[in-house]
Write a structure and sequence with these properties.
83% of the residues lie in helices and 0% in strands. The chain is mainly α.
Length: 403
């Protein structure tokens, strides 16, 4: 009975609030992001290259800033203020999309939005760890990921409905996107109380010093290397959509494939997080990576459209089995006063892999065909699994120590 009670501990209010903040923010952001390429091309007259440049600059900015915001949150011993500032900046630049009259104006707005994301992510992920006991961290990160993903498919749905109701009034929808973003910032400011722990606030030394980075431990740096290796084969979802189109799915239904992925992601992340607190995170994370390898092999050899729908559903399950569990495993592997720094480096590794991953995928697709792109992605995932398994003893020791 005692063991059972340990696994049904209540998820702290802070985690629920952060989850709903993510949900509202994703609704706000995806209302814009789902329409932005079309707005740039059809309204502002931009070409596809310009769209790619804007997205590349925006995502690179977010990746770089994640490490600095994480380090700063460790140095200051406070995370909520940085999270509020990051969410607030992303929200209050939204009107710039509505008033943009050139691609440059969109670039400025997108740049501001991604700066906000870069500032908030590492402190937010560290806040989840600061607010929870190790026994429920899998459930906590899974819950936040589930709520975040619900916002990711509600946003495009809202944009679709509003486009139909407003006769394709892009600018009106961009203004309306400010509303859920504003509520997200208000909820974060009022609903989250930062944990007051000596572990977090007692150390104001530079987290980027060699001794501090070494104290993160080999196990942590192996996880960073695993994330980097895995994501070198995890190309843009655009390639999945192109593959779906090749199998005969009509252009009007293509966006629904991502909805299928997000539905299974959102409904699986929390239950799998709860399960990981019972049976351990390492095995489930390995399973999530292996499922990805199988799904990518499936995309390499897919023949019919119904198979594509199933593969997108399984891809969402992979996300539910890996995204939150990786964060929980990191949180359980590192000192409390370096959580922001640790999540910053992890996010930086993932961000740095995105561009070469997509370049590699595009080059293979163009020269050898779609099959080569997905087989290569599968091989990268298998390599990441091998690196994890070789170091499994470190994570099993952590699991035993926490039970």
């Amino acid at each position: 009975m005692r063991l059972q009670n340990k696994f049904v501990q209540k998820i702290p209010q802070t985690v629920w609030v952060l989850g709903f903040v993510s949900l509202l923010t994703d609704i706000s952001s995806e209302m814009i992001n789902s329409l932005l390429p079309l707005f740039l091309v059809s309204v502002l007259g931009a070409n596809i290259l310009t769209v790619g440049i804007i997205e590349g600059i925006a995502e690179a900015t977010a990746s770089i800033l994640k490490i600095f915001s994480g380090v700063l949150s460790d140095y200051l011993g406070h995370r909520k203020g940085l999270a509020v500032f990051g969410y607030g900046l992303s929200t209050f630049v939204k009107p710039l999309f509505a008033v943009a009259t050139s691609p440059t104006g969109v670039l400025i707005a997108r740049f501001g939005d991604r700066i906000g994301k870069g500032i908030r992510v590492a402190p937010r992920d560290a806040l989840v760890a600061d607010s929870t006991n190790p026994e429920v961290r899998g459930a906590a990160y899974g819950l936040r990921q589930s709520l975040d993903t619900i916002g990711a498919f509600l946003g495009p749905l809202a944009a679709f409905a509003l486009m139909a109701a407003s006769q394709n009034n892009f600018r009106l929808i961009f203004w309306l996107a400010l509303i859920p973003g504003f509520f997200a910032v208000a909820l974060l400011a009022v609903g989250v109380s930062e944990p007051k722990t000596s572990e977090i606030q007692g150390n104001r030394s530079n987290p980027l010093q060699w001794e501090a980075l070494r104290s993160l431990g080999k196990g942590y740096w192996v996880l960073v290397a695993v994330a980097l290796l895995f994501n070198l084969g995890n190309s843009s979802n655009a390639f999945l959509l192109l593959r779906a189109e090749q199998t005969g799915i009509s252009a009007s239904l293509i966006p629904l494939t991502l909805m299928m992925m997000n539905i299974t992601y959102s409904f699986s992340a929390y239950p799998i997080g709860i399960l990981s607190d019972r049976v351990g995170k390492f095995g489930l994370l390995v399973g999530g990576f292996l499922l990805y390898a199988l799904v990518y092999l499936g995309f390499a050899f897919v023949q019919t459209s119904w198979q594509v729908w199933g593969l997108f559903a399984l891809y969402g399950l992979h996300l539910g089995m890996s995204k939150g569990l990786l964060l929980a495993l990191v949180a359980n592997s590192i000192p409390a006063n370096l959580r922001g720094t640790a999540f910053g480096f992890l996010n930086l590794a993932v961000g740095l892999a995105l561009l070469p991953a997509s370049l590699l995928a595009g080059g293979l697709w163009q020269t050898l065909g779609a099959e080569a792109t997905f087989i290569t992605g599968s091989l990268f995932a298998i390599a990441a699994v091998l690196l994890l398994v070789i170091n499994r003893r470190k994570y099993l020791q952590i699991q035993v120590r926490l039970t």
